[in-house]
Design brief:
Largest sheet: 6 strands, mixed
Number of strands: 47
Structural class: mainly beta
Shape: elongated
Radius of gyration: 36 Å
Number of helices: 5
Strand order of the largest sheet: 2-11-9-4-7-6
Strand content: 35-45%
Mean pLDDT: 83
Distance between the termini: 76 Å
Number of domains: 4
Helix content: 10-25%
């Protein structure tokens, strides 16, 4: 009996094996294939495609991966309107659905998507179809889309080394490699402050450099047949200097990034109010130096207008006839107020030689003031009585004309950056003038530079209100020697990894959901999180990064 049963089973198995598999397993109707391999150069733009065969279809879901070391994803273009092509961290997803897609026979194929990349390193780079699902709309209500066969899974790019590009200071590009026959484009790093006339050589010969009119320049691909050296040939932009009023002297032009010196040649019997504008905006960062004044080169970003408002001292307060205000025979000396807080000063415009001179400041909104005094260009002591709000220069120092510089305290702003449990993380910004080689420090630590805020930035956690945080910040910020701790990166590279991906989105999300504090997270990363530059971190920043990733802009 046992032998008969075994024999029957064996016969049944043999019968099954003789039948077509499609009787018992779902037939794989569709097939997908990657385009053929290619040979190219570093710096070239290349494309690969995926084709579908097997007849009419309504929906497809393709997943691919690519070599992120040697390729940069540029774009994906589906053949069908309404299809979605998204890229994230080396993975690409192509999803299409809707009306009947282009018909093809069992043997013919239809291109469903074309993917474009930029080559960035020599070697062999692969784009691989990792999965594919193809189906018709009639199956959608009752079935999941079945896997398609993958007849050719991989497109290989053999990438040959391109020509090296050496760029002069003041120039940059997305790549320092150029490909033969393909245009090479680079850009000026600071066209706002410099004029550029770049030139390029290949194998010692001059080649064409086209000015694109937007701060970028292009070398035609037809001329690229070797390594490239590019000179910036940049010169600082020069701005016009206009003097208004009497007794001013200096050059009539000022180049960017070169300190500009001018003098106010004070006359006896007159007081002066000095004002400076740069590019039409009031500027108070000039300093007294060597009997004159200097504007830091970095501040020279537009035409300069220097105004000296000259006022004759009343004879009743009087200067002696024919005497010099700074001379030893003058009975009275003049007093001038300059600086951003000059209009808040209350004091006489003349005083008796050898007598104490006092003045006060009409303080506005708890603003802090920095006050210094010079007599005949020499710094003298100026004491302050906080109870009476009176500043005093001793009569022993009053030996000539007095210049009092009043600078409004640190331009400090505070905004709620992240709301925490019973506390807030505040963004503190300092936008005051800072000399070269110096940096604002918060409690002795160098602050971060923000190009977006045009200010130095710091973060503090406090349960106090904004007014109190402002007062604390003003007392905590000093100017010391050094450089900014770092520059804030608004590209979306929140985690400082060098690449923008979903991890940056998640980190941003956790920050505005108060899952981190300044104890558990590096301040620089927190500052990087404000990618939309509105001085706070919220869901808008996470959305901004997602949109950048979906657009394929994942380089830091």
């Amino acid at each position: 009996m046992k032998k008969r049963i075994l024999s029957s089973l064996l016969a049944f198995v043999l019968l099954l094996s003789a039948l077509p598999m499609g009787v018992y397993a779902a037939e794989t109707r569709y097939s997908v294939a990657a385009s053929p391999d290619q040979t190219t150069d570093v710096g070239k733009t290349v494309s690969m495609s995926v084709s579908v065969s097997g007849g009419k279809y309504n929906a497809y879901d393709l997943a691919l991966t690519y070599d992120t070391v040697r390729l940069t994803y540029v774009s994906g273009q589906a053949a069908d309107k309404g299809a979605s092509v998204t890229e994230k961290s080396g993975s690409i997803r192509v999803i299409g659905y809707g009306a009947d897609k282009s018909a093809s026979t069992k043997s013919a194929s239809t291109k469903v998507v074309t993917l474009t990349f930029k080559t960035k390193a020599a070697g062999t780079a692969k784009v691989v179809i990792s999965s594919a699902k193809i189906d018709t709309g009639t199956n959608a209500p009752t079935k999941n889309a079945p896997p398609a066969a993958i007849s050719r899974s991989t497109t290989k790019f053999t990438i040959q080394p391109g020509y090296t590009v050496t760029l002069d200071e003041g120039l940059t590009s997305d790549s320092l490699s150029a490909a033969a026959g393909e245009d090479y484009t680079f850009r000026a790093t600071d066209p706002l402050h410099y004029d550029y006339k770049p030139s390029a050589k290949i194998s010692g010969k001059d080649v064409t450099v086209k000015d694109n009119g937007d701060g970028t320049y292009t070398i035609p691909g037809s001329e690229i047949n070797g390594n490239i050296t590019v000179k910036a040939n940049r010169t600082p932009k020069t701005y016009k200097v206009t003097f208004k009023g009497e007794d001013l002297s200096g050059e009539n032009s000022a180049p960017y990034n070169t300190p500009y010196h001018f003098k106010l040649n004070r006359k006896a019997g007159y007081s002066y109010v000095l004002r400076v504008t740069i590019g039409g905006k009031s500027y108070t960062g000039y300093k007294a130096e060597n009997g004159g004044y200097v504007i830091p080169g970095a501040a020279i970003t537009g035409d300069i207008v220097i105004t000296a408002q000259k006022t004759k001292i009343n004879s009743g307060g009087g200067s002696s006839s024919g005497g010099s205000g700074g001379g030893s025979s003058a009975k009275y000396v003049s007093v001038s107020f300059i600086g951003s807080g000059a209009n808040d000063a209350v004091g006489r415009k003349t005083t008796r030689r050898g007598s104490d001179y006092t003045f006060r400041i009409d303080r506005k909104d708890d603003t802090d003031y920095d006050v210094s005094a010079r007599v005949n260009g020499v710094t003298v002591k100026c004491t302050y009585d906080s109870k009476k709000n009176i500043y005093r220069i001793s009569g022993s120092e009053v030996t000539g004309d007095i210049t009092i510089t009043i600078t409004k305290g640190a331009p400090v702003e505070v905004n709620v950056y992240v709301t925490l449990d019973k506390q807030s993380m505040y963004l503190v910004t300092y936008s005051g003038s800072v000399e070269d080689g110096h940096v604002p420090m918060y409690d002795g630590q160098n602050m971060y530079w923000s190009e977006a805020y045009n200010a130095y930035a710091w973060l503090v956690i406090s349960s106090a209100d904004e007014k109190e945080v402002v007062r604390t910040a003003r007392n905590s910020i000093i100017i010391g020697e050094g450089e900014a701790a770092a520059s804030i990166d608004y590209s979306g590279n929140v985690d400082l990894s060098g690449r923008i991906d979903v991890d940056d989105v998640h980190l941003d999300h956790d920050m505005y959901n108060a899952r981190y504090t300044l104890v558990s997270m590096v301040m620089h990363k927190f500052l990087n999180a404000d990618v939309n530059r509105d001085q706070k971190v919220d869901v808008k920043d996470a959305v901004w990064i997602v949109n950048r990733i979906l657009s394929g802009q994942q380089g830091a």
